[in-house]
């Protein structure tokens, strides 16, 4: 089916009390793994591309692969820009056919973040493209974006309320203790802050940096209003781990299909596991 907007997926998730997984797609095998997992689990799915993935694979390739996967699939698929920090990049993705974009203005002042988010919404809303915003700085590294733990800041609930009132954005990524990349210890989420923010904004909340967060903590976050959960690092770990295993066991192997095939299967398995945790399995 044609690509759908993230707002459409999250609206249903909000009504039914589950979350939709947003999985980062960096190459063809991972696109295939995401769509295969979604079909096996009968789950809606968000394929997202970071600015780094776009630089690596090319905007036309990313858009083309995901569009083909969506058109051939019976499950609803959204194509989402993850952490678009540059206004022009966001617009290029909209023009390329993305059904959803995230504008990450978290490093800007509150008023500048609001102003640019509103500008993007004015462009995206009339053509049915969903927009996610971010408030608060999520620590860690994702591609070219690095936020030190010293710079990381939890989302202020009153700022979140004001931000949503001023922009009218329909989903908001907040900082409550998660981080991008691999964790060195077990993350502790600020559930009280999540409850307060959800009560003030009453829109779907997005949890970034969710790889490595214990399943029970993710389930609790979903029960408190998280409706989109981002996963990237766990996929990379499974994918590259399977590749390494093949290379170690068959050091003379030169057929990339024999190396990437098992990696794709490993990605399918971890994505299916996440969908079950998120409660999105069987929703189609």
Brief synopsis:
The protein has 284 residues and is an alpha/beta fold. It is 50% helix and 18% strand. Residues 145-151 have low confidence and may be disordered.
Mean pLDDT: 92
Strands in their spatial order, largest beta sheet:
1-2-3-4-5-8-10-11
Residue ranges: pLDDT <50 for 5 or more in a row? Answer: 145-151
Q: What CATH first level would be assigned?
A: Alpha Beta
The CATH superfamily title: Aldolase class I
By CATH, the architecture is named Alpha-Beta Barrel
The proportion of residues forming helix, as a percent range, comes to 40-55%
Structural domains: how many: 1
According to CATH, the fold-level topology is TIM Barrel
Structural class: alpha/beta
From the N-terminal CA to the C-terminal CA, the straight-line distance is: 13 Å
What does this structure look like?
By secondary structure, the protein is α/β, with parallel strands linked by helices. The chain has a single domain, classed as Aldolase class I (TIM Barrel, Alpha-Beta Barrel). The chain is built from eleven helices and eleven strands. The protein has an eight-stranded parallel beta barrel with strand order 1-2-3-4-5-8-10-11, surrounded by ten helices. Strands 7-6-9 form a three-stranded mixed β-sheet, with no helix packed on it. α5 links the parallel β3 and β4. The radius of gyration is 18 Å and the shape is globular.
Task: Give short descriptive properties of this protein.
50% helix; 11 strands; 11 helices; 284 residues; TIM Barrel; alpha/beta
Topology:
Elements: H1 6-16, E1 20-24, H2 28-41, E2 45-50, H3 51-57, H4 59-71, E3 77-84, H5 87-96, E4 100-103, H6 110-124, E5 130-135, E6 139-142, E7 145-147, H7 157-167, E8 171-174, E9 179-180, H8 191-201, E10 205-207, H9 215-223, E11 226-231, H10 233-249, H11 256-278
Parallel strand pairs: 1-2, 1-11, 2-3, 3-4, 4-5, 5-8, 6-9, 8-10, 10-11
Antiparallel strand pairs: 6-7
Helix pairs in contact: 2-4, 2-11, 3-4, 5-6, 6-7, 7-8, 10-11
